[in-house]
Design goal:
By secondary structure, this protein is mostly helical. The chain has 2 domains: about 80 residues; about 50 residues, no CATH class.
Length: about 140
């Protein structure tokens, strides 16, 4: 009986050691799999971030180029050349033609151009000439 007891005790110890070793191997295997998945996910995120960063740099270069082009077009000598090239004649407006408006889109009071415009549109309406949309709106109210 003693021999069987020793054998069964040895056998159970061997099984417990084998089970522990199997559990350690399984944990290491799962850790390696998780590490591989995490690193591939991180690599994909890094590639995505690098692509977006390159796109941002390209957009910044395009923005700088467009701003420089716009500034060059707005330079007074370039405007003069463009006007001359297209055969346009630009003149400053007569102060009687200017109508200054406030933030709400209404004409500021006391301007001679407002009185002239009202007079012109009222005469046009009586003569059977089509009036601007803004004058038509005023009449409907």
């Amino acid at each position: 009986m003693k021999g069987n007891y020793k054998r069964s005790k040895r056998y159970s110890r061997m099984l417990s050691h084998t089970f522990r070793l199997g559990a350690v191997i399984a944990v290491v295997f799962v850790a390696v799999i998780l590490n591989v998945l995490a690193s591939s996910s991180c690599n994909q995120l890094v590639k995505n971030l690098e692509a977006k960063d390159a796109r941002l740099r390209q957009c910044e270069v395009d923005l700088d180029r467009a701003a420089a082009k716009w500034d060059a077009m707005r330079a007074s000598e370039n405007l003069d050349q463009a006007v001359f090239k297209r055969g346009l004649a630009l003149y400053t407006t007569d102060p009687k033609q200017l109508i200054r408006i406030n933030a709400h889109g209404r004409a500021l009071p006391g301007q001679p151009s407002v009185a002239l415009a009202r007079e012109r549109y009222s005469n046009a309406a009586t003569a059977g000439v089509a009036t601007p949309v803004s004058a038509q709106r005023r009449r409907r109210r």
